[in-house]
Amino acid sequence: MEQRNRGKEAEKLKLLKISPWSVSCEDGSQETLDFRESVFSQGNGYMGVRGYPPEGEKKHGFERSTFLSGFFEYIKPGTTDMVNQPDFSVFRLVLNGRELRECTCTGFCEELDFRNGALTRRYVASDAEGRRTRVETVRFLSMADVHAAGVRIRLTPENYDGEVTLTAGIDGGVVNLPISDDQLTQNVEVAQLWGRITLRPAVKGGGLTALTDYSKRAVSMEYRLDDHGGNYAWEPAFADSFAGEKAVIPVHEGQAVTVDKLVAVYSYRDGASPAEAALAAADACAQRGFDGMLKDTASAWNAIWQAADVELDAPDEWQGGVRYNIFQLVQTDPRSDPHASIGARGLMHGRYKGCYFWDTEIFMLPLFLHTDPQAAKNLLLYRYHTLEDAVKSARGFSLPGARYPWMASDTGFEQCGTWDTGCCEIHITADIAYAVGRYLEVTGDDDFFRDCAAEILIQTARYWTERFTYDEASDRYNLLFVKGPDEYCGVTTNNLYTVWLASENLRLARDAVARMKKEYPREWESLRERLDFHEEEAAAWEDRMRKSVRRYDEERRLWIQDDTFEKLEPLNPADYKEDDIPLYHKISYDRLQRYQVLKQADVLMLMAMRPKDFTPEQKRTAWNYYEPKTLHDSTLSFGIHALMAAQVGRTEEASRYFEKSLFLDLRDVMKNTAREGIHTAALGATWQALVFGFAGLWADADGVSCTPQLPREISGMRFGFQYRGERYRVQIDGKRAQVERLGR
Amino acid sequence: MEQRNRGKEAEKLKLLKISPWSVSCEDGSQETLDFRESVFSQGNGYMGVRGYPPEGEKKHGFERSTFLSGFFEYIKPGTTDMVNQPDFSVFRLVLNGRELRECTCTGFCEELDFRNGALTRRYVASDAEGRRTRVETVRFLSMADVHAAGVRIRLTPENYDGEVTLTAGIDGGVVNLPISDDQLTQNVEVAQLWGRITLRPAVKGGGLTALTDYSKRAVSMEYRLDDHGGNYAWEPAFADSFAGEKAVIPVHEGQAVTVDKLVAVYSYRDGASPAEAALAAADACAQRGFDGMLKDTASAWNAIWQAADVELDAPDEWQGGVRYNIFQLVQTDPRSDPHASIGARGLMHGRYKGCYFWDTEIFMLPLFLHTDPQAAKNLLLYRYHTLEDAVKSARGFSLPGARYPWMASDTGFEQCGTWDTGCCEIHITADIAYAVGRYLEVTGDDDFFRDCAAEILIQTARYWTERFTYDEASDRYNLLFVKGPDEYCGVTTNNLYTVWLASENLRLARDAVARMKKEYPREWESLRERLDFHEEEAAAWEDRMRKSVRRYDEERRLWIQDDTFEKLEPLNPADYKEDDIPLYHKISYDRLQRYQVLKQADVLMLMAMRPKDFTPEQKRTAWNYYEPKTLHDSTLSFGIHALMAAQVGRTEEASRYFEKSLFLDLRDVMKNTAREGIHTAALGATWQALVFGFAGLWADADGVSCTPQLPREISGMRFGFQYRGERYRVQIDGKRAQVERLGR
Fold this sequence. Notes:
Two copies of one chain form a homodimer. The first copy, chain A, has 744 residues and is α+β, with helices and mostly antiparallel strands. Chain A is built from 21 helices and 30 strands. The A-B interface holds A 77, 188, 396-399, 418-420, 423, 469-471, 473, 478, 480-481, 490-491, 493, 564, 566-569, 587-588, 590-594 and B 77, 188, 396-399, 418-420, 423, 469-471, 473, 478, 480-481, 490-491, 493, 564, 566-569, 587-588, 590-594.
């Protein structure tokens, strides 16, 4: 049994070929399909599709996943789910009267190209009579116009004359698979969120508008067919929820038939008339054509890579892996949309109901902050736009100010249903304030400070003011009933990470008030009045910053995670964990919280985020103490450990942790990529390990520093970043780093 | 607004007339109907009905509540609900072509008689033409044969000759109102748990068998009509789910028409053929007749009152109130059924999905323990019969032994869905062990000890062995992440109540092992082998008993509730609470847990349960410290405070708290009796305050003591109890108590 598992594992490791600019696979089997669908996911920030075969037929509607950024619907009072959208990829294919599933496939190859985002699938389908058809499909979501996508199918009879029947269109017959946020709960039901679907017939094209049942939220998808002059006899093929057409196409040996489907997608989020917008956009797509659109997309990607690429002198697999991480994160970021954020599985899977966590601000944001500040700003604007909900949420907890939800969707109201996490994992509010602070430090964006950041910082600080509990006996403030990033810590007191960042939040608010007064007196007057701010509030902030409880053991030079951590029962992880599958599958969550083990970095996380607050000795001590106790049962853990390992000079461990994060999905480290999709926080953590860890870059109000700590596998690296409106270029060769300012 | 509320309140106080042997009401308005339905609930332990009018028509199926003890069904995987049963009470009445709702009612009086459990309703219905009809209905559930019930309707035209149309039968058209166990969640959906319903026609009688949809659990109800020789022209009146008949009855001025419906109920829980059993039983009912059955019921109640009555020299309202509390608790106890227990709202409401809590063992059991030991034993046998589920539950928490669920139904698997309560309010396991210990002390039941108790005690002790966490630094055991009876305490460490009772559980197990070895060596050998018991286990128990952390402040002579209690923010309850409505409606649960306020007795609860473990001084100190901080936001709080007030000699406060508990539902103290039903734990707490508090009775292995502490309102009391197989009688006159042994 164990032997067999190891065998499977080895197979998975070599399943994908990771090249510097692409990932490919020559295994087209059903067993690996879900995994491949995850790793070959595509997106353009506006929409995302899992890498499912356009021409294949999956049994269930929920298995064909297409998501739109910020498109949610209620599944019960107060609880939303990200809506699985109509399937615009679908082509239905019958070869000489044979369904594709009756054929055997050989020569399979599938490749995702980072330079244009296109997914190409090629194989030869042979039927029982020995007729062989070369099949090639290409799909891309446009980066030049995020409402557009193209799907091409090309069929070439290798050894016969015959006919193929091709159906093309848009299929509204999809459902949601509502997924509990309890990691141990299996999903048992599907939900039909779509209500009325209106189909629109047209010649060589058509479309549909679907309305969600409850909120009547609309999506319109319009397609145009280009049969490359074939002039096949297309006939309408409409059904309940399918808008499409069908042609029986005569084919001849050695002659390719090519059909392109060009798609435009608009939703209620884009304005009042998504149907009209989609119609116009589809016509524009038809005019430009598949190849033109793909070319535009490649140009757009080229610009992204100019800003975000990290070139390595390292094995191809590392280079390709790094680009894959950046590529996937950029693909799923709603870049120009200030009303949406990035889900824990992006637009690549419905897990966690598409919700946004601290993952965005703490793990993913840094990449954008340094390579696309406008995109970073939009992620923070999403939080500004949900600030009002956060204020109402705080009231719901009988507290002033703003309390951001552990899980957010298109509303800022809590989407997490479990008490220990939803009520107690409150660091999210400080995380957002931290991210706002980092954004201001790195960009120097005064407008954002004045118009949005000051208000966020003041309202979140107000929350903390009363979330701390004053203890008269010790004249200190305790943070009671709190859960830190280490979710195996139980519900505890004075989690260091949370206390530290909450205090930081208070400091940022205090400084923001002072700066508003000084630099923007008129705007401050209006904000002060609107928020009914009183001077005593700042004094209360000061008091909590000074008197919050943070446990430091002078003798051991050790920062202690929380008040209960050292009371927990010791456990040797190696006795229980022999792979990277989370231990909560073997030992109950409830039991794990009484063992002295961490699910993921907690004190080390804090040190990674506030590198200047701790001495090298404190970092080393913390590493030596916490790292052996950490189970890495969260995908958020590896990258941060790689970063910290690099910082404390343990390059071999850094390299080992980095590989876990780098290949987390590509090698299915956690064994859940197939059924959960891409782990977006890990993508960002990989980038941080690389840039903040190995390259040793750090930019803040003091300026920029770069102290590389390359692992054995990397001899040099080159990348660009932005700081305070200017572009910089870093070149590292071994220990030597050169930072060049390129200007605006 | 406030003025008006006080006006309403005053009305509610005088709504009911409380007499020594009955409760009655002359208000028949719609506004008070839900409240009256709750307080006039009826039961016989096997079944229970809310006090809804047999002849009225309520709009919704869930508003006609009939429940059977232990009859649950799954509403989602792992979660059950108590099933609302077909309505056997219903009579449909049309007076001279007028619906009852078109008439005006005068002279209304409704009375519930504690001597036979009958609910009688009388009024005069007048129509627009001035025709007046006297209406009287009587309903009882038989205490002599718990499968039987009778409903009588008597109609007398006062000033006309005419006709009435009467429909009688059994209505399967009922649904469930699944109620969240979150006290703040509103109920929004009804659930249809019934699937196939088979109707059975017959002459002057009929019946139905209904099967739940999911588990195919059957209930059969059969009725017989007795029209007292009227020989009316009954015709079948069957519908989808209604089995019945109808007659148009000529009526004459001053002449009464009487129709009795005699009902028999059997379910899948009673054997393989509930339908046959119901048929035979209905025929027996018909033979005995309504008056004969009611007489039998009065005899059965007489026997119950012989054992359980508490006679007071006190105002009638107090005497009647005390009997009401005893009456309601006895009515809802499944007495002879060792596979069911008593829900938090008994058989009187679906709140908490009919689940069983610690309420049974800690609040209700003592009454039965002292007045009906066999009934007490059956309640504990329910826990023995779900021990296997508790063992499996412990495994689910990665722990050995048995872990009883916070909420149980017909399975012993956890029915509570919230993390802080369902996972952390673990004292339930120790509560059950405590109750087992009390049962053994008071009854001396050796068979139960040998056959059931020893196993329960050992398995529960094993759970605690690993639930404690050893702290090497202090050489002590902490109980981490625990919630005590005070549910406003957050999730904390070393809750004194839980630690104390857990240690007591370990002690009971240790003693049980020793006693089994000595007195039942053969049975022990078999049990030891079956449980795979090792001698080291007892040593581990000993270690935890000695080294568990219990905080006692020597200087203040104060037992401290838990490790965080004194770190909480002080709050003066009077500033926020001006009535008895729980504060969690005003301040969020999450916020309340950081205030130094108690939802209900915690340390005082422990002292009430273990009176000899604490000195009078410790009790006084605890009272002085905790009582002013207690919000009594649980109905479990008043009675225990009355008991403890009596014990610390504060008779005026005792009297005040006692009245809250005594009239909790009769005067709607918590303002939720209408929509939630009778609070069964408070019924038991009232009895404990009276007998353990005012009478000062205590029976344990040392014998029986009685030190009365009567409040001003009570000058004397007389009651019986049982101890070690013998009957005793207590007579108290002022400070003097006389305990007389009556023998077996």
